[in-house]
Structure of Glutaredoxin family protein:
Amino acid sequence: MSREGCHLCDVAEADVARICGELGVPWETADVDSDPEWRAEYGDQVPVILIDGVEHGYWRVEEERLRAALR
C-alpha cells in the first residue's frame, strides 16, 4: 500500500521492486487513498507491505525478512 507524495513509499517500492525482481516474484502497488477501507486500515502506516493479502510490515522494508517470506 502506497500513497502519492510519500517519500518512504518511494524508497519501499524501489526495495520491493529490486527484491522481487531478483526472486522472480510478481508484485504490484496500490494507492491507499483510493479506497476508504484501505485508508482507514493502513493510512497511518504507509508504506505497508502485504503478502497474499496479509500485512507483512510497514514503514520500512526489512529485506531479509521479506526475502524469507517470499521464498
